Structure formats: C-alpha cells, structure tokens
From TrEMBL:
Record protein name field: Type I Restriction Enzyme
Species in which this protein is naturally found: Candidatus Beckwithbacteria bacterium GW2011_GWB1_47_15
Keyword Translocase: no
GO molecular function, one term: DNA binding
GO biological process, alphabetically ordered: DNA restriction-modification system; methylation
Sequence ranges assigned to domain Type I restriction enzyme R protein N-terminal in this UniProt record: 71-180
C-alpha cells in the first residue's frame, strides 16, 4: 500500500501568499484551519498541487522553479469548503469551471464556481475568484449573471467579497450582506433585525466605500462623495439612537425587501441626522439616489458598527475618506492629506497633554486632530475619558465642505456624537459675524483671549481673532493669494510694509500670523511651510517677525517626495512656542535643526516600506507594513534635545 504523501499546505500557502503585491488573500477564511482543509503535495519535482474538494483531482498551486503560485486556486478551494460545510450546499449542486452561455454561444470563459438550484441544472449562485481587482471582478460577475439568468453572484479575492442579487429578469443588480444557506430562501436575508451590540466593530471601510462606488454608484450620475456621506450620516444617527435611546437597541439602518421602504427609512434617518448635527448638510437636503440604487448600498454598511470603534478602525476610516476624496477630485485635493507619518512626528515633538486644547485652523480631513486624539488616548485610563477628550479638547476649522465633513464624521465617531469642526474662513475675522457663525462663536467663546481693556475684549469677541488654545498643528494651503482684498489684508501685520498695506500676500504667510494669534502665551505650534519662507532673502522680514513673537523650537526640513504625487514643493515644519508673558525675549538660544533623508515615498509618490536583510517586508504589531522613513528618529532626537534644554512640555 503506497505511503500517503505529507501535506505541505502550511508551507506552500506561505510561499503562494508571500509577496505583498498578490491581490488575493486569506482574510475571508481567518477563522478556518487551512492545513486541515487543504491537502497540498509535491506531485512533480518542485511543482505542488492541491486536491480539489469537489472532484478529488489535483490542481497546480505553486511552481518552485518559476517562484510562481496560483493564489486564486487556494481561494477557490476555501470557498468550496465554505459553501459545502458552512452554507450547507451539497457538492452535487456545485460545479467548478462551468462554461458560460452567452446567447447561443458557449464561450471559453468559465465561472469559477456555480451552485445550482435543487434541480441540479438551473444556475443559482455564481462565485468569481479569478479577477482579484474588484471593479473587473464585478463587471465579469455581472456578465455571468446576465448570461446565465442566475440570481446571486459572489465576487471574492479572499480579502474582500461582494454579493450581488439580481431578481432576474430585472435590469438592475441589487446587493446582499451575505448569501443564503442551503436551508434558507433569499427572502430570509431581507429585513434581518439586529441590535447595536450585534453590529461588528471590525471592518474594512476602504472596501465598503469602494464596493458602494463600484456596485451601486458607477454610471449613476450621482455625486459619489455627497451620496456616500449622506448614507454615512444616516448610519451614524441610527446607531446613536439605537445605543442611547431605544430600549431594545434595535437598528433601523438595514435593507428592506421593498426598495421604497429602504429609501423611506434611510432618507428619514439622514434628515434627522442633518437636524441633529447642523452645519454639515442643508436641512432641505435629501438622499438623491433612486430607491433601487440605495438598496444596493445599504447592505455594505448594515452589519458594521461605527460608534465606539477603536484606533485601528478609525485609521481605516481615515484611509477610506482619503481614497474617496482623491477619487472624486482626481487628486486636486490631495494636498490636504498630510502624510500621517509627518503628522505623527509633529505630535510627538509638540507633545499635547490630555488637558490641553488643540486647534487646526486648516484642518482638512482632520489628520492632526485624529492623531492628537490617539496620542492623548494612550494616557487616558477609561473609554469614558477618551470620549470626553475627543468631544471637548479638539477643534478644527476648514472652508472646504468635503474636507470639513470628513473631519466632522471622524470626530462624531470618536467623540460620541460631538465635534468642534466648523466651516469658517480662518483668515478672515469678518466671517465670524452673522447668524450662520453663531454656533462656532458659542463653542470658541470659552477660548477667547482675555484682554485687560474691556473695550478690546468686546471687539475680540466679535472677531474671534485672538484665542487661548494650548496647541496648534496645521498644514495650511500654500496656493492662493489675497490680491486686492484690503478688508482682509488690513487685519495682518505681515500684510503691511513701512506702514502701507500690500496689494497681495500669499495665503500661507497670513496663516503664520493667524496661527500665533490663536494660541495663548506659552502655547506651542507646528506649521508646515514652503521652505522658502525660512531661507529666501525676500522673506527675511517674516523670520524677524517670528523671532519677536515666538521661540523657535525646531525646524525640520522634509524631503521633496514627502507630499508627492499631489505636490512637489520643498517644505519644512516649523515648531514654535509663543513667548510666555513672564519670560524675557532671548536673542540667542539653541534651535533644533534636522533634515529628513528618508521620506517614506519614492519619486512617484508611492509609499516605500522597510525590508529585512532577506528582502522581506517588516510588519508592526497590527500586521501592517512598516513605512521606511526617518521622521520617528528625528522626533526622538528632538525629545533628547528638549530634555537637555529643560522644556517643560517634553516630560
């Protein structure tokens, strides 16, 4: 009797999925014991085959000589296992590599897996795993559904999955949050009641946003950013109500069998959210998708929990918003997304305390605020304390609607339904008057700087120019001038020369002065600036002005690749401490200087990751690749410098 060959599943799976550029993955199967499901043997020298769970035959999965694997085959076998053992479909109802009928033709294209109805003839569920790219995979899947008249299609690359539902012969494709088990009907998947506690706080938000965009909104003519954000706000509002006010904690945000009912429920949740969290949408606004398209969107979000997500999930949401706004704007807004390793360096150097108020007057998508919150959370002992910090100490202003909404959404999630993110023109005190600025004035009033002269104080409350924040972190927009706007320019010392008002001043110059006005004496700042501000001869007056107003703590020159592909401007981060009222202005003191040589990006703006001596990527404790940059090292060197100089905030 021949000896059974040893199962090399564990060894070969590692080789097949070793390279990070492999689009297939195993996340979908993380709860399965792969080595007991898959049987992989070396049938020929250096060529490894897996036993097909349906036919018992073997299929090539890895060629040692070519160093090439077939991850899609492993994904297919694991889907066969799930369909049979978890969803309960017998193998006699499952076909592998079934030819697809396109009209009268039977083309060479074959569906990876087809589940038939109980008659073992009529296609019921089609599974596509060959196309690892979501967009191409869904397009392929839709063509199969149309050709075969199948009701359900699954696209999966092992990392993500999308379940399409086409109530044939209707023209539109719907979506489901899962496929039915063999003992279920499709109707059993509609109107599934869930409580807030049953929602899943672990999810891939980038995948959710991409899936909504590809499966529901592609070709719809809708403003993708607007409609996804409306759906998100409806979801947030429903979760907050379910958690805090509904006795049974039931969530209403779900797919209903009748698309009209789905639209009625979700749109009403959105309208209530707009009233609950004003200054984000107009009260008269509504979801502008058709009921059918909205019915496709909802299943992608109905199972996940946005409130009370952890830091890792918030970072994923942050990444998804970056993806969304970049896609929608074709990169035009990309400069607003300050690379997160730059943000982390700034926060590490400025070292915000848990009792200090923080502002970003050009907050964009809220990166500085979000990571300041993470920094503070490390010192806070309870979830309640973390929520209070997020809701109380972080402030942001931005005039760009889409970017501001991202900041608001992230702070709503982190701050338990509260935020201090406002749409105002940070540079123009005139924008703080009038009815529409009332809410911002109320929130900022407690942080107004108190003058000795009551008349000055009264005027300050009107303009909200001088504030008492402890920390300011910002990457203001470099582009744009203020040519001819005398009403704005006369508010700034840096807009005057020899007592005369200049005709035009770059926006980032005004932001320097505005930023110093926003912090209390002794307050700390980190501001990203074009390097020319710090070394061009025609900018010497700005440097002199800065010496008069603040202590220069540090200057960190960033690599030219840091902001690519969105911008190639050479930049530096300037770290300041506003002169304390009781401290004599020094004329000579040490300043920390550093230049980044490893930006974590290549010349094309793609991220670069660390590798070990064998060429393998390095991973952090969360399983994420480690960016190859030197900004953490620069921050550590500054901390050594700060302790040596006795800076009180460095401890």
């Amino acid at each position: 009797m021949p000896t059974k060959k040893p199962n090399k599943a564990e060894e070969i799976i590692k080789k097949v999925f070793k390279e990070p550029d492999i689009a297939h993955g195993l996340k979908e199967f993380e709860d399965l014991d792969l080595k007991t499901i898959l049987y992989i043997t070396e049938e020929e020298k250096g060529r490894y085959f897996v036993k097909d769970l349906k036919s018992g035959k073997t299929r090539l999965v890895y060629d040692e000589t070519k160093k090439k694997g077939k991850p899609e085959e492993i994904v297919r076998q694991l889907w066969l296992y799930k369909l049979n053992k978890i969803y309960g479909y017998p193998f006699e109802r499952i076909e592998v590599e079934k030819s697809i009928h396109f009209g009268r033709e039977i083309r060479a294209k074959a569906a990876d897996i087809v589940i038939t109805k109980t008659d073992k003839i009529t296609p019921y569920i089609i599974v596509e795993v060959k196309k690892p790219d979501e967009k191409k995979g869904i397009e392929q899947l839709k063509s199969y559904l149309s050709a075969e008249g199948s009701e359900i299609g699954v696209w999966s690359n092992g990392i993500e999955k999308v379940v399409l539902y086409r109530p044939y012969p209707k023209e539109y494709e719907d979506s489901l949050s899962d496929i039915p088990r063999a003992d279920q009907k499709i109707d059993d998947l509609f109107e599934v009641r869930r409580t807030w506690q049953e929602l899943n706080p672990k999810f891939d938000f980038v995948h959710i946003v991409r899936s909504i965009e590809e499966a529901a909104l592609a070709g719809s003519g809708a403003n993708v950013f607007e409609e996804i954000f409306k759906i998100l706000y409806a979801k947030l509002f429903d979760e907050k109500l379910a958690r805090d006010q509904r006795k049974d904690q039931e969530v209403l945000f779900r797919k209903y069998k009748d698309p009209e009912k789905t639209y009625e429920v979700i749109n009403q949740l959105f309208k209530n959210a707009a009233r609950q969290w004003p200054d984000t949408f107009e009260l008269s606004d509504k979801i502008r998708l058709s009921p059918q398209r909205l019915n496709v969107c909802v299943p992608f979000l109905e199972k996940v929990r946005l409130f009370e997500v952890g830091q890792g999930e918030l970072e994923i949401i942050d990444s998804a918003f970056e993806y969304l706004i970049t896609e929608v704007s074709k990169g035009k807004k990309g400069q607003y997304f300050t690379p997160r390793h730059v943000i982390k360096m700034c926060i590490k150097i400025v070292n915000p305390k848990t009792s200090e108020y923080v502002i970003d007057p050009a907050c964009g998508s809220g990166g500085f605020l979000l990571h300041t919150m993470y920094h503070a959370w490390e010192e806070l002992p309870t979830e309640a304390a973390k929520k209070e910090y997020a809701a109380k100490y972080l402030y942001g202003i931005d005039f760009d609607d889409n970017m501001r909404r991202i900041s608001q959404a992230l702070m709503l999630i982190a701050g338990d339904g509260k935020h201090h993110i406002f749409k105002r023109n940070s540079l123009d005190s005139r924008d703080w008057t009038g009815y529409e600025a009332e809410e911002a004035r109320v929130e900022f009033k407690k942080l107004l700087h108190k003058f000795d002269n009551p008349a000055d104080d009264k005027e300050n409350q009107k303009s909200f120019r001088h504030l008492d924040f402890d920390i300011l972190l910002t990457n203001p927009p470099f582009a744009g001038e203020n040519k001819g706007d005398a009403g704005l320019l006369r508010q700034y010392e840096l807009a005057k020369s020899d007592g005369k008002l200049k005709n035009n001043v770059d926006r980032h110059i005004l932001f320097i002065e505005r930023s110093l006005d926003a912090v209390r004496p002794g307050g700390r700042l980190a501001i990203v600036l074009p390097q020319g501000v710090l070394n061009n001869t025609n900018m010497a007056y700005i440097r002199q002005w800065l010496f008069d107003k603040a202590i220069i703590l540090a200057v960190v020159g960033l690599h030219v690749n840091t902001f690519k592909p969105h911008a190639g401007t050479k930049t530096s981060v300037l770290f300041l401490q506003k002169w304390p009222e009781d401290k004599k202005h020094l004329k000579d003191y040490p300043i920390f200087m550093a230049v980044s040589k490893k930006p974590g990006k290549d010349n094309s703006g793609d991220y670069v990751y660390k590798k070990d001596d064998k060429g393998n990527f390095s991973y952090d404790v969360n399983g994420r690749k480690v960016l190859d940059h030197d900004l953490d090292e620069i921050a550590d060197k500054f901390i050594e410098f700060a302790k040596k100089e006795g800076f009180s905030f460095s401890t």
